[in-house]
Amino acid sequence: MSKFFTEKYSSLTPYTPGEQPKDLKYIKLNTNESPFSPADEVCKAVEKEAKSLMLYSDPECVALRKKLAKVLGVKENNVIMTNGSDEVLNFAFMAFADKKNPLAFPDITYGFYPVFAQLNAIDYEEIPLRKDFSIDVNDYIGINKTIVIANPNAPTGLCLSLESIEKIVSSNKDNVVIIDEAYIDFGGESAVKLTEKYDNLLVTGTFSKSRSLAGGRLGFGVANEKIINDLNTIKYSTNPYNVNRLTAVAGEAVLDENDYYMNNCKIIIENREFTKCELEKLGFEVLDSSANFLFAKTDKIDGETLYKELKKKGVLVRHFDKQKIKEYNRITIGTKEQMEILIYKIKEIFKEKEL
Length: 355
Ligand code: PMP
Known about the structure:
single chain, alpha/beta, Aspartate Aminotransferase, domain 2, 2 domains, 3-stranded antiparallel beta sheet, binds 4'-deoxy-4'-aminopyridoxal-5'-phosphate
């Protein structure tokens, strides 16, 4: 740390992104990316747009918002586009949480929530999940806090019903409830339609997972117009050109090819169920996932050792040190072939260790 780093940030523990190793060509099942390339039309649109890179991007993302609003069944004024959904989450924490409105989120969830809270000096309560890793909705009824719930949750993959989400939103009318739907296209029911009914609901989403655009950094928020205006106040006070030209046209082309992406989601869901079944045959306990990853453990080998052994064999999965989940690994769902290799490598490890 330099002597210039201000006191307010000096104790910040930054988010640790999943490894992006350069040494070997790994089968990457550690950061919940899509195994499928963007549609050809997306690549063509980006190539064409590159000729206009001397110009700033459209800060309002008008064309993109129009298309996304249509796909989501809302009005364009109910949508904000951001640099990944991490950015809309940070904007929302800045806009809707403070000393008087502290945050509340599950104790096992997306690791960026506590980081954004610390960054913005917001107090937060981490509400324990049940023993089976499910969220107890009763813990969130009328708690007068700014609530953030990933649905499906990460890294568990477990999903709340729309009815449960509505109970939480309707019982906390004086606070914003943020539902992070990064993984919603893999099985959950979106709360976007509730944004018309509740002025305290913000749903966030991303093009990083189901729409194969993690490297493009495109996220969004959907809410009542007043909430979107507040988020825009933060956006225009930090980075008005937050969505660059290449990403904006890529996003539009992605939405034009919706069938391709939704079909990819179907394949991922099939591969997920195949992998779950194979892991269970090997003695793993696997949570019921509505996302593009599985959360699994086995008594045969501890979580960290399995992660390390798989890495040696060229397969990367995600292991977390947190005490409550250290026996588990989070495994991103890739192509059928990648999942077959994963299972094969696990069998090899078991054989080598005589498990
Ligand atoms: N929410 C959750 C639950 C996530 O797992 C992630 C990705 N790691 C994000 C939001 C942010 O994704 P992105 O910024 O790529 O949209």
